[in-house]
Structure formats: C-alpha cells, structure tokens
Amino acid sequence: MTRTRALLLLGSLATAWLGAASLTRAAVLVPLSLDELVASADLVVLGEVVRRESFWGPERQRIYSAVTVRIERVIKGETTASELTVRRLGGTVDGQTMAVPGSGRLVEGARHLLFLRRGERLAADQLLVVGLAQGIYLVTTDLATGTELAVRDLGGASFARPGPAGPVAAAEGQLASVAPSRLPLAELLQRVDRILAPPAATKSETTPR
C-alpha cells in the first residue's frame, strides 16, 4: 500500500515566516501580488507538462520530482531551449509518496502558465516555482464559452501578512493585492505584459530642449 508522508514547508503562522518545516495540517503562504510574481521570476513561460520523474534525495530522506515542460511561449526572460525542467519537492518513489500541501500541482499533459526562478544549487536548466502554488496557473477551457482560463489552485493553503506581533492570517478575498486565482488566459497575459512594459516617457523627457 502506498504510504503518504505530508511535508509542510510553511505549516504554521510561526514557521511560515521562517520557512521552517512543520508537521501541521495546513500550509500558510506569504501572499504575492502579480507584480511581485513577475518581479521574482527569472522566467515566465506558457507551456505543456510532458513528463515527470521522481527520485530520492540524499540519504533517502526526501523525494524530489523533475517535471519537464515543453515551452510554447516565453513571456519573461530568455532561453533558447524548447523544454525546461521544474524541480519540485515531493513525488512517488518505491511506493512511497511525499506530498507538499500548498505547493500546487503540475498536471501531465496540460498547459500551464508558470512563474519560475533559478536556484542557487541547481543546474542552469532546472528551475523552481515562485511562491509555491502561487506561481502555477493551469490553463483550462470554459466549456460554455470556449474561453481559455488561467486557474490557480492553492490546495487549501491560507495566506498570512506580517503584523506588529507576528504574521497575521487573512483569507485570499481579504487581500486586495494578491494575484488573481482565475482569469481569462488572454487577460492574465496582457496584465503580465503591462507589468513588463517599460514606463512611458514623461513629457519633460520627450520634449527637445
């Protein structure tokens, strides 16, 4: 029988801020706005998950997964590769599963909009997701309208903001600045493009002297 070990990197209000491991039942994330997601990402890409390989880490203490994404479009950053690898904590090896609540899901065979960053100890072609589940949008189609949607699944994770006495929990709907969890894909891409666009020159900068 498959055994599931739940590892919560951000499991309580106290440990969430320190990034320490916890064994509580819920994940707590530091909320990121769309501007913060874009700024924190080395690469923003639209692509399809084509395969996943899970493996043990050193001393068989943790399970990791290497998820291959076929690139459809690069929105931010530069790469000449047609595929990239997303390194993830969690997966299934030898009948054992390590689950990481709040980390989001990369669905094999599906398209995603991904906000990715490079890791200090990873190979140049391996990347990490920004903000755990916050940096993963699954592309789906509204069956009624045919509109492509970008949908983010936080997996039951909650948000916390820093407060005078420590982190303060808040629901996603209470955080006006948090990146949207569901939008038409075209609209979300337009928002990202606007964030990346250089600021318009002021009148004083464009008027000859």
What is the element layout, followed by pairings?
Elements: E1 3-6, H1 13-18, E2 28-29, H2 34-40, E3 43-56, E4 63-76, E5 83-89, E6 91-93, E7 96-99, E8 111-118, E9 126-129, E10 136-141, E11 148-151, E12 158-163, E13 166-170, E14 182-184, H3 185-196, H4 203-206
Parallel strand pairs: 1-7, 2-12, 5-9
Antiparallel strand pairs: 3-4, 3-8, 4-5, 6-7, 8-9, 8-10, 10-11, 11-14, 12-13
Structure description:
By secondary structure, the protein is mainly beta. The protein has one domain (3-195). Helix content is 14%, strand content 40%. The chain is built from four helices and 14 strands. The protein has helices spanning 13-18, 34-40, 185-196, 203-206, and strands at 3-6, 28-29, 43-56, 63-76, 83-89, 91-93, 96-99, 111-118, 126-129, 136-141, 148-151, 158-163, 166-170, 182-184. The strands form three sheets. Strands 3-4-5-9-8 form a five-stranded mixed beta barrel. A three-stranded mixed sheet has the order 1-7-6, with no helix packed on it. Strand 10 (136-141) and strand 11 (148-151) form a beta hairpin. The model is unreliable at 1-24 (pLDDT under 50).
Helix and strand composition category: mainly beta
Question: What portion of residues belong to β-strands?
Answer: 35-45%
Number of domains: 1
Biggest sheet character: 5 strands, mixed, barrel
Helical percentage: 10-25%
Q: Which regions are unreliable across 5 or more consecutive residues at pLDDT < 50?
A: 1-24
End-to-end separation in angstroms reads: 77 Å
* Mean pLDDT figure: 80
Short description, anyone?
With 209 residues, the chain is mainly beta.
